[in-house]
Amino acid sequence: MKRSRNVKIVATLGPASETYETIRALHEAGADVFRLNMSHGSHPEIAEKHKIIRQVEQDLDSPIAILADLQGPKLRVGVFANGEEELEEGAKFRLDLDEAEGDVSRVCLPHPEIFQALEPGAHLLVNDGKIRLVVEECGEDFADCTVETGGTISNRKGVNVPDVVLPLAALSEKDRADLEFVCSLGVDWLALSFVQRAKDVFEARALADGRAAVLSKIEKPQAVEDFAAILDASDGIMVARGDLGVELPVAAVPPIQKRLVRKCRAAAKPVIVATQMLESMIESPMPTRAEVSDVATAIYEGTDAIMLSAESAAGQYPVQAVETMDRVATEVEADPTYTQIITASRSAKGTTVADGIVAAAREIAEKTEIKAICCFTQSGTTALLTARERPGVPIIALTAVEATARRLCLSWGCKCVMTPMLTRFKGAVVSAARAARSGGYAEDTDQIVVTAGVPFNVPGTTNILRIAPCDERLIYSTDPE
Fold first, then answer.
1. 275 noted as active-site residue
2. Is 217 a residue of the active site?
C-alpha cells in the first residue's frame, strides 16, 4: 500500500472493527499497524482478529504490523454497600484490607503492595483522578486519608499512586499467559503496561525470547524519571498520555511528550503518541479543531506513529477516523515548516560505519535528484537508522525476513518490501530498482541510493552506499559483480 505520508497510523481493533471488511477498509484508509487490546476479548476472539489481519495482509500483498497491548496490573477499590458514596472535600476516608463492603468513611483496597509503599503525604487518585486523597497516616494494612478533591466513588474504580514506586511487577499472571499466547500467534510488537523502571522490561524481553519486539508504555511519573534506562532496554516506546495525564499535572504532559519523542528519535527507536487523539470521533464523523491540532503537533514533533484507541475500536466512525489522521498527516508533511522543524531537530548520533552510511545517504538524496533510499536490512537496524535521519525522500526497506518487514511498519517513512535472499550486490541493486519502480517512487530515468552490507544476510554489516540507476539495463552494464 503506497502511502503519501511518512508518519504511521496505529488503529485499535474492537467491537466496531472486527470483521474482514472493516479491517481491510481500515488498512486501505491508512492504518499501518493494528493494536489488539488484551484488556478486552478472550483468546479465541484475539486469535480471530489476528487471522483476519493476516488474511488482509495476504490479499493486499502489504505487510502489516500487529501490536498486542498487555493489560498490566489493575489497581481498584472494592465494593460499597450502597454501590457508591459521595466524598466531601476535607472529609476523612480510610482505605484498608478489610473485605467488608464500604461506606462513606472507608472501603477495601485489596492491594497490600500499595500499603507497603505508601508514606504520609502521598496521593491516591481514584477514578482517573476525579477524586484525590492525601495520606495522613498509614500502616501495613491501612491508609487514613483526607479528601483533597471530592466526588462520587463507586464499585471497583481504578486507583493511581503517582508519588511512589510500587513493588509490583509490570507483568501479572494474566499478562504472562497473554504474552505467551500472542507470541505463539505471531504478533510483531508487545506493548508493556505499568512500566516503572528498566528492570520491568527485562522480564517481558526474556519471555518474548525474540518472537516479538517489546514496546514500553510511558504512563507513570517513575517511568519518566528512569526514561533513559527504559529506552535503552526497549525496542520502542508509547507515550500513553491518558494515565500520564492522571498521575502528573496535565500541563506537564505536552513538554514530556516532546522530550520523549526527541529522545526516541535520537536512539533510532520508534515512538507512538497515543490516547484521545480524535476522541470526539467516537460519536461524531468530524473531529474538533483542537484534536486536529493535537495530531498535527505530534507529527511536527517527528513521532513515528499516532494512535487511535476507542475511536477505531468502539466508535461509530472507525474508517473515517483513520482517513482523518491520514489527511492531517499528509497536509502537515507537505508544509515547508514541517521540513524546517524536522531538519532543525536532526542531531548527529553514533560513530559506527552504519551511522555514517545512512547520514551520507540522506544528505546525497536531499542535495541531488535521488528519488528514494533503498536499504537492505536483516534485523531492521539499518532501516531504523535511516528513519532517524528523517530524509526528504521515501525509505524503501528491503528484507528477506518477514518479521522484520512487519515490525518496520511502525517506523517513520519505512516502505517495507519483501525480497528473496540475496548473495550478490548486483542482485540487490536490481531488486532495489524494481521496488522503487513498482512502488511508484521512481521511473527508469531516475536514480536511487542503495545501502547494504556485505556479506549479505548478516545483521549489523551495513558498509556499502551506491548511487544506482533505475534502468536495469544500465545496472547490468555498469555494476560490478
1. yes
2. yes
| Angle of CA points 115, 203, 187, to nearest 5° | 120
Establish whether 330 is a catalytic residue: no
Q: Is 451 a catalytic residue?
A: no
Give residue 301's pLDDT: 96
Q: 84-160 adopts what CATH topology?
A: M1 Pyruvate Kinase; Domain 3 (2.40.33)
Phi, psi of 380 (to 5 degrees): 105, -10
Instruction: Show the DSSP H helices in 301-335 as ranges.
Output: 310-313, 318-333
Of the residues 49, 217, 265, 269, only one is catalytic, namely: 217
Please pick, among 5, 24, 35, 362, the residue that the annotation labels catalytic. Answer: 35
What tens digit of pLDDT does each residue of 11-38 get? 999 999 999 999 999 999 999 999 999 9
Task: Quick: pLDDT tens for 35-51.
Answer: 999 999 899 999 999 99
- What is the mean predicted confidence (pLDDT) over 355-382? 94
Q: Is the pLDDT of residue 350 over 80?
A: no
pLDDT of residue 479: 58
Question: Distance between CA atoms of 179 and 75, rounded to whole angstroms?
Answer: 20
pLDDT of residue 244: 93
* Catalytic-labelled residue, pool 12, 275, 377, 386: 275
Q: What is the CATH T-level fold of the domain 353-478, as seen in this structure?
A: Pyruvate Kinase; Chain: A, domain 1 (3.40.1380)
Domain boundaries, the chain: 8-72+169-337, 84-160, 353-478
Q: Is residue 113 predicted with pLDDT exceeding 70?
A: yes
Closest CA to 364 of 393, 384, 398: 393
In this structure, CATH architecture of domain 8-72+169-337: Alpha-Beta Barrel (3.20)
Angle separating helix axes 43-60 and 20-29, nearest 10 degrees:
50
Residue 430 backbone dihedrals phi, psi, to 5 degrees = -60, -45
Identity at 303, one-letter amino acid code: T
Q: Which of 3, 74, 76, 197 is catalytic?
A: 76
The predicted pLDDT at position 481 comes to 53
